[in-house]
Amino acid sequence: MTKNDYLKLNYKPNYQNEIVATFYGESRLSLKELAIKTAEESSIGTWTKINTLSSDILKRLAARIFYVNVKTGIFKIAYPLALFEPASIPQLLSSIAGNIFSMKAVKNLRLEDIEFPEKYINKYPGPKWGISGIRKITGIYNRPLIGCIIKPKLGLTSSQNAELAAQIFKNGVDVIKDDENLTDLSFNRFTDRVKKVLLLKKQVEKQTGKKKIYVFNVTAPTEIMLKRSAFVKKIGGQCVMIDVITAGWAGVQSLRNADLGLIIHGHRAGHSTFTRNKKHGISMLVLANLARLAGVDQFHTGTVVGKMEGEEEEVIKINELLKEDWREFNKLRENWGKLRPVLPIASGGLHPGLTDKLMKILGHDLIINFGGGIHGHPRGSLAGARAAKQAIEATIKKIPLKIYARDHLELKEALEHWGFK
Ligand code: RUB
């Protein structure tokens, strides 16, 4: 085995037949040597020459490093498609995001981006509903969906939860969700919550003539999660949430593959354990790719202006990736095949005073989620729901929040309470 088996700087990747991964690396070795170790360990090689690795295997399956930039620390590797099992995110990650991070040679290593051939993409189901499906279900086409997270995260009984949801739905919110850690707890049993929420939601829909969505958090070991999702479906729900990192991509795929016809909401709690360090780990952009492949319909991607880390350029790029049918930012790439676009969710630390800035940055194809920004309103959650709706209305009408607040009391109170940007 020679270095040149992996290092092919004149090689032009074949985007129809290879998965291309972009890495950032730092090492006591040269960047080229780090790239070679990465390419070996993530495809077919190991730390020493092995007699079982024939020249034929090497020729067919060795990953090829075709780009190394010592100034930026970036290197790119093309992997033959034969290295990957179709439609298996676990197998994909065990290859290109597995052992490599543990190598002693690595000081820092980050999987920055990943590009898939269309034929690989098309083996995945992608979202069942996607943006157009969700908009069709809700009948909302010209504005972001207004979302609310029930707060406190944990503590309400199933009846309190259902009552609160019904009141918030009545006051203009389109989508209400369980928080990431609300699953099946002694004081709020999953099945009770589903029954009670859906009963009241039906009544509100009758009264208001508007379709509402409640997002039930089904996160659990896979077989339990599937049972919970089937229960939601049976009782007449349309949407379930899975914490994609803590439940794992196999769980997400199993949920999608069960094809229950439910909207799948992807929460990303825990992602910062490996996305936040800009030098090491896996980028949020890569996770967005995985979410779309696995078939999440709506996915948390960040707010820029809220409480969670996530820079403007990065969040915009992630949202564009989820929404686009064609990857505009690199024409060389393959498109998303038959996979539907995913609706981005802006969530975390949002309040009515931030909506115009948020929508200026991230546009209208969004769910805008408020937790504290509704339940922390000085006159309570119902006034908070109205304030959130008014803030989005004002932004859609291109009226400054401060002006709109003159004859919208709840918005005025919210702006006085939290300020605005
Ligand atoms: C929001 C909240 C969500 C975060 C997740 O509550 O707790 O779980 O949005 O973050 P609040 P992200 O509105 O009170 O801040 O969407 O960035 O993954």
Main sheet: strands, sense, barrel = 8 strands, parallel, barrel
Secondary-structure class: alpha/beta
Would you identify the regions where 5 or more consecutive residues have pLDDT less than 50? 326-334
N- to C-terminal distance = 59 Å
Average pLDDT, all residues: 95
CATH architecture of the largest domain: Alpha-Beta Barrel
User: What is the count of DSSP helices, taking H or I runs of 4+ residues?
Assistant: 18
Level of helix content?
A: 25-40%
Number of domains: 2
Topology-level CATH name of the largest domain: TIM Barrel
% residues in beta strands: 15-25%
Give a list of the ligands. Answer: ribulose-1,5-diphosphate
What's the quick description here?
It is built from 18 helices and 13 strands.
What layout of secondary structure does this protein have?
Elements: E1 18-27, H1 31-42, H2 55-61, E2 64-69, E3 74-80, H3 89-96, E4 106-115, H4 118-121, H5 130-138, E5 145-149, H6 158-170, E6 175-177, H7 190-208, E7 213-217, H8 222-235, E8 239-243, H9 244-247, H10 249-257, E9 263-267, H11 272-275, E10 281-282, H12 284-294, E11 298-300, H13 312-323, E12 343-347, H14 355-362, E13 367-370, H15 372-375, H16 381-396, H17 401-404, H18 409-418
Parallel strand pairs: 4-10, 5-6, 5-13, 6-7, 7-8, 8-9, 9-11, 11-12, 12-13
Antiparallel strand pairs: 1-3, 1-4, 2-3
The structure holds ribulose-1,5-diphosphate.
